[in-house]
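Ticket #4471: structure output looks truncated?

Reporter: J.K.
Steps to reproduce: submitted the chain below (92 residues) through the standard prediction queue, then opened the result file.
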Amino acid sequence: MVLSMDEIINAVCLHMAARKDVKPTEVTVELSWDELSGYTAEVWIHDRSQYLVESNIIEAILRYLHSEYGIRAYREDITLDLDEEITAHVRT
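Returned output as attached by the reporter:
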């Protein structure tokens, strides 16, 4: 199974909304990758910015897989990949 960049963004939005007790529409996410930091997400909630590292993004994906698809996966089942956009490959 492969999650698109939009699905990863949705996963992070839903995850952060639940953690910060706000509506998902109040969360903005920008995914990125660079050689120094690897995969990161910058999240804005009420004009405040927070950076998430790869493990935080994977945590959001795990929660999303369970809530949206009924899939219980483990961290080692998920790999982030960068082609034209960032995707998540899930071994099920």
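Triage note (M.O.): checked the attachment and the full token line is present. The chain has one domain: 2-90.
Status: closed, working as intended.
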